[in-house]
Amino acid sequence: MIRRPKARANRRRLLFVTDLHGSDLTFRKLLKALEVWRPDAVIAGGDVAGKAMVPVVDLGDKFRLKWMGQVHEFASRELSTFLEKVGQVGFYWHIAPVEEIEAMRDDPVRTNRIFEEVIARRWSAWLERLEDRCRQLRVPAYVMAGNDDPWSLDAVTLVQREWVTPADGAVVPVLDHWMLVSCGLGNPTPWQCPRDVSESELADKLRSITEGLKDFSNVIANIHPPPFDSTLDLAPKLDTSVSPPRPVPGEIAPVGSTAVRDFLADAQPLLSLHGHIHESRAAVRLGRTWAVNPGSEYAEGVLRAALVTVEPSRVVSHQLVAA
Amino acid sequence: METAARSRKSDDQALDVFLRQSSGLVRELSIFDAAVFGVLASGLFFSFIYFFPYPQYITPGINTVLMLVLGTLASLPVIICYAALGSAMPRAGGDYLYDSRTVSPALGFAIPLGMGAFVWTILFPLGTFVIVSFGLGPVLNAAASQFGIETLTGWANALQGTTGQLITTIVLALLAWLITIRGVRLYRIIQRSVFLPAIVVTNVALLIQLFVSSNDRFRQAFDRFPANEADGITYAGILSTAQQNGWQPPSFSWGDTLLWIPVMLGVVPFVVYATEGMLGEVKRARDFARLSRALILGALYIGIVVFGLLYFLFERMASQEFISAASFLVNEEIIALPYDLNITSFSSIVNDNFFLVLAVSLGFIASAFQLMTAVMMNETRILVSMGLDRTLPAKFADVNPRFHAPIFSATVYVALVLGMTLWFTYAPEWSTVFTYLSVYGGQGVLLFGCLAAFLLPIRARAIYEASPVARYHIGRLPLITVISALGMILYVASLFVIATNDKVGLTGAGLGLPADPRWLLIVPVVFFLAVFFAWQWVERRRGIDTRLVFEAVPPE
User: Fold this and answer.
1) Phi/psi of residue A318, nearest 5 degrees
2) Quick one: which of A274, B6, B330, B477 has the most CB atoms within 10 Å?
3) B554–A13 CB contact, under 8 Å
4) Which of B543, B544, B553 sits opposite A303 (nearest CB)?
5) Shortest CA distance to B57 belongs to which of B325, B260, B253?
6) Subunit contact B18:A31, Cβ cutoff 8 A
7) Cα–Cα distance between B22 and A83 in angstroms, integer?
8) Mutate which of B21, B548, B549, B550 to disrupt the A interface (most A C-beta within 10 Å)?
9) What does each of the 556 residues of chain B score in pLDDT, given as a tens digit?
10) Is B21 on the interface with A (CB under 8 A)?
11) What is the pLDDT of residue B29?
């Protein structure tokens, strides 16, 4: 079929990244990738929060911390260099006197508050840097949370900026021709993440977000969990009879969302972008919809992403890329 | 106590990490396996055929042992370059990977395909020639004489005919394909249980045979050898006939000796040619020190033990004067010896025991067939890497999940090999052209390999800085810069010598070839450049930007 030149003139390249989980190195690669890969728009799929915080004991003239099972002591000028390494893999740090660190162990509420503060601080800093880079390159970005992000992060995420648009739980226009539907909730996981909801709640949420939409031919769905049993959702099977749940050796199982699967089957958007299952990097066609999960290797400092070329009512191609 | 110890062991095993099911190419080979793979793929014994008797005739002042040692040492810079590149990018793809990330994506695509994969299809019929001439042929003839079965001689003659060689090539290429598609796990077993023992047995058998044969013993055996007796050929007669026809006992010449070093620069580095593409399947390939040590030891084994020591013992047995005189007489066609002039036939003059002939022949068979298998395995890994980058269709990157082998790429390559073999069979003049092309192509690939190593710290700085070789310096300069500059100088000089000096026999002068191999090499390179840009255009039409593969994205 010969396509009209107008369609090609409206061809755009979207960059989709997800599950950075606090990794500074991966985020810095994303900033550079905007320059190298030259997308027309950036869509971020959530799960920006990291998973661990390293307590750094302030001993006055030096600092002590435990990293990879080993205790290290640093003078203050050496500490910042080392903490960069901590941030690269997505960990946070909290510097305090030994009494405060010990008190935190007995006060989970206080620890959680500090945790949320450091997460919000880094995410806020990232958003500012992303805004600067997007302004410089004149590339719009759309961000949302994921199921692993604390609710308190919304105070940072939902701030409207000139180039970075909060998209969670909303329908926002993208580059004139497309509509972006975003949902950062997740189906239930054994980890009991902050934004895990039941499948029925997730189905209701998707329905309510897209209530006003009649035509899905130019809709891009950015839904954190992938559809169930779609090959984008394969993960090691977990034994949930123990806490924390542990993988069953050699067994892989689909762990995606049935609500997302049903939504995609009914609505058939043009494109559906997912994350959540880091090891299930793939793209698959579900009826009319191209569904993509670029995966994540944030802990290794590898930026996994998808470049999707779209025309009005058509996905031209997808390219899974890495940096 | 015993129960406690067992219990602790069981606990330790319970703590072992869970690994994901492996997919794609899997690291099955150790660095030792990889080095052996490369050493065997140098062709070992049949490369040696080139070093005797032609050089001794054309450049009588040659000190062959010295040339072999110097040539081996001159090969070390390129070997270190490849160890550095391989440990910096320990993935499948070899030259394609190195050249495309440092020199240029288009040249990185066209050089390994045009100068390597395409022209090296000639190694399959050449390998067959070696197998039937130095392996199966001698074994069948010796068996015919030992056991009195005349039919075997007929078989030997049939195998050495055009149809026999064509059928043998087809069978061996398909066998190499079968090994390739069954994956490196099976190959490793074959290497350890067949290729390596057969070649070691041959090497040791030849060394012992030459070591125990003094010059006196050789003289007597030569004179009493039935075929010589029948034709009235004697040791003293060879020397006197040569002198009567103008031959003089040679005196040492540096020029004659150094002239042949370019040939060594094409032979010894096969230890890296073969290994580099497989590094995605080698454990601890990122360990530069171990990798370079293994490859250097492999090169020294080829150059010093297989070539140098063997020739030294051969010269000790037959004497330098006799070798020179015999080469002169045979090449001037003053006399015709009733056997080929090579080390194995001279060795069997001293001892024509069937089992010795069998031991020596097995090494030739194993060596030539391993080279075919190594070329197929290596080239298919390059195609896989291109498929992964989508500089070729993504289908080329398919790896069978059961055997962890690239079946599609291997099938495409064996089809190319079979097509080219048919062409070479029915247009033998092109087979000679391609033999020369493979020499120029091989050296061209190595020159680009050195250039890639030179450019690594400049054009792929992030990869270089993260690589283990970045720790090594000579003075204030990075080791890789110094070694690669030296490698480039050697290969430019080498290419200049083989392309301009008719004595080396690679210019094609006077052979009436249908094309000049020195210039013909440009054709496949240009063809593959066109393929690269055409496929890039096709992918871009589909919204895939293959250029992104070659863009480094460092952290901001």
Assistant:
1) -130, 150
2) A274
3) no
4) B553
5) B325
6) no
7) 34
8) B548
9) 344 444 444 445 544 444 445 556 777 888 889 888 888 887 666 666 667 778 888 899 999 999 999 999 999 999 999 999 999 998 888 999 999 999 999 999 999 999 999 999 999 999 998 888 888 888 888 888 788 888 888 888 888 889 999 999 999 999 999 999 999 999 999 999 999 998 888 888 888 888 988 999 999 999 988 888 888 889 999 999 999 999 999 899 999 999 999 989 988 888 887 788 888 888 888 899 999 999 999 999 989 988 899 889 999 999 989 999 999 998 898 988 877 777 777 877 887 778 887 888 888 888 889 999 999 999 999 999 999 888 999 899 888 888 889 999 999 999 999 999 999 999 988 998 998 999 999 999 999 999 999 999 999 988 898 899 999 999 999 999 999 999 999 999 999 999 999 988 888 888 888 889 889 999 999 999 999 999 999 988 888 888 888 887 777 7
10) yes
11) 86
> Does A174 contact chain B (CB < 8 Å)?
no
Mutate to test the interface with B, among A2, A17, A26, A36 (most CBs of B within 10 A): A36
Q: Which of B542, B544, B553 sits opposite A36 (nearest CB)?
A: B553
CB contact set of B264 (below 8 Å; sequence gap of 6+): B67, B68, B70, B71, B72, B74, B75, B303
Distances (CA, A) of B386 to A155, B106, B109, B277, B420: 46, 11, 8, 12, 22
3-class DSSP string for B254-321:
HHHHHCCHHHHHHHCCHHHHHHHCCHHHECCCCCHHHHHHHHHHHHHHHHHHHHHHHHHHHHHHHCHH
Q: In what order do the strands lie in the sheet with A289-293?
A: A171-174, A178-183, A219-223, A271-273, A289-293, A282-286
Is B475 at the interface with chain A, CB within 8 A? no
A 14-73 residues inside an 8 A Cβ radius of B = 25, 28-29, 31-33, 36-37
Could you give the ipTM of this predicted complex?
Answer: 0.71
One-letter identity of residue B469: V
- Residue B555 and residue A33: Cβ atoms within 8 Å? no
Is B18's CB within 8 Å of A247's CB? yes
Contacts of A319 in chain B (CB under 8 A): 543-545, 548
pLDDT of A307 higher than 90: yes
First to last CA, chain B: 58
Structure tokens belonging to residue B161: 């005919």
CB distance B553–A33 less than 8 Å? Answer: yes
CA distance B89 to chain A (A): 15
Residue B344 in tokens: 């194995």
Contact A32 B554 (CB under 8 A): yes
pTM for the full model? Answer: 0.78
User: What Å distances lie between residue B215 and B320, B484, B493, B508, CA to CA?
Assistant: 11, 44, 38, 37
A97 touches chain B (CB under 8 A): no
- Give yes or no for A231 touching B (CB within 8 A): no
Distances in Å between the Cα of B90 and the Cα atoms of B281, B462, B472, B547 are 9, 15, 18, 21
Residue B44: the pLDDT is 64
> For residue range B281-297, what is the model confidence (pLDDT) as tens digits?
888 888 999 999 999 99
Q: Across the interface, do B556 and A316 touch by the CB < 8 Å criterion?
A: no
